[in-house]
Specification:
This protein is α/β, with parallel strands linked by helices. It has 15 helices and 10 strands. It has 3 domains: about 60 residues, 3-Layer(aba) Sandwich (DNA Methylphosphotriester Repair Domain), CATH 3.40.10; about 100 residues, Arc Repressor Mutant, subunit A; about 90 residues, Orthogonal Bundle (Arc Repressor Mutant, subunit A), CATH 1.10.10. The strands form 3 sheets. A 4-stranded mixed beta sheet has the order 3-1-2-4. The chain has a 4-stranded mixed beta sheet with strand order 7-6-5-8, with helices on both faces. A two-stranded parallel ribbon has the order 9-10. A hairpin with a 6-residue loop joins strand 5 and strand 6. It is flat.
């Protein structure tokens, strides 16, 4: 069985390494304290002889262990960092504000702690995120037909020259050019297995990838070239929709996705993507069997290339393809996430 728990020595090594591959699927009971934790818990690690492993929270609690207060194993997918949540809530309440470190300090939080927390979760600082939010609003105003001065005021810039310079740095165009340019909107989505970047127009989702995917920057550049567009930070209806659907998916309530997708690629590539979406929840395919599914049994290598070209993770479930020998093959978001997604879907399918 691919997802049977390994022996305790392997699990203890995963505990020491805080390996996220087992997050939610294996738990450790600590004999000396009477608590149980996720393997990714940041608390000091117990000795090997004090560690006992369980495949579920229920079995750990039945053995008399209490849930850890640091890693909160009873929380589905864990909790968002309270500090990050506090700052994001403040930003959403005042997106036009010119945030500064003094503003952050006024909220009784340490700016350096905030910087580290945001860099860890999003790859940029809180102040950088706030600046991009304001810039996105200004570009929105320009592309909506507003004058440059109106867009400048919408973005809360007091200086016209400062606004023009900021627009040029951000998108490589001056404000007059920006009024005639096509823009896609990008925003971060939080999931139990890492933050994702979603890029969409007003009508369709163009990209959905984990932000630590090595090829993400190349994918974004390719998307900009294919669409002759620029990408700014902001929200559109498809991003809001996929956020709701991902929340239902990760909590196990619904595996269905209805967000409209803007797909690129050849007829063959789109055929492969359609075949991926036709794989039933909880089932897997090899590249050769997927090639057979589309009536081109000899095209397994071409199928693998089309699978790798997918830039809408989870919704086009390329994680459901494994090697012919049953092994987990390459996945841009990381093999540990592939295993997590497969096991999550297996459990969802069993519960239906």
């Amino acid at each position: 069985m691919l997802f049977d728990l390994p022996d305790d020595d392997v699990l203890y090594a995963a505990l020491i390494a805080r390996d996220p591959a087992y997050d939610g699927f294996a738990f450790v009971g600590v004999k000396s304290t009477g608590i149980f934790c996720r393997l990714t818990c940041p608390a000091r690690k117990p000795k090997r002889e004090n560690s006992v492993f369980y495949s579920s929270m229920v079995s750990a609690m039945e053995a008399g262990y209490r849930p850890c207060r640091r890693c909160r194993p009873l929380m589905q997918g864990g909790e968002k960092d309270p500090l990050v949540l506090k700052l994001l809530t403040a930003l959403e309440a005042e997106p036009d504000r010119k945030w500064s470190e003094e503003d952050v300090q006024a909220m009784r939080v340490d700016p350096s702690t905030v910087r580290r927390a945001f860099k860890r979760q999003f790859g940029i600082t809180f102040l950088e995120m706030a600046r991009l939010r304001r810039m996105g609003k200004g570009v929105d105003a320009l592309t909506g037909g507003n004058t440059v001065i109106e867009a400048q005021l919408d973005a809360s810039y007091e200086s016209g020259s400062g606004f023009r310079a900021a627009i040029s740095r951000q998108i490589g165009l001056n404000p007059s050019q920006a009024r005639k340019h096509l823009f896609l909107k990008a925003d971060w989505l939080d999931t139990p297995i890492g933050s994702m970047l979603a890029v969409a127009s007003r009508d369709a989702l163009y990209l959905l990838e984990f932000i630590d995917r090595p090829a993400l920057l190349n994918e974004i550049e390719r998307l900009k070239q294919l669409t002759s567009s620029e990408i700014i930070f902001g929200r559109t209806a498809p991003v809001d929709q996929v956020e709701r659907e991902l929340a239902a998916y990760f909590t196990g309530h619904s595996p269905a996705f209805h967000t409209p997708l803007a797909e690129f690629g050849s007829v063959f590539t789109r055929k492969v993507w359609d075949a991926l979406r036709a794989i039933p929840l909880g089932e897997l395919r090899s590249y050769s069997s997927l090639a057979a599914d589309i009536g081109q049994a000899s095209a397994s290598r071409a199928v693998a290339r089309a699978n790798g070209a997918n830039q809408i993770s989870i919704l086009i479930p390329c994680h459901r393809v494994i090697g012919a020998d049953g092994s987990l093959t390459g996945y841009g978001g990381g093999l540990w996430r592939k295993r997590w997604l497969i096991e999550h879907e297996r459990r969802m399918a069993l519960s239906q």
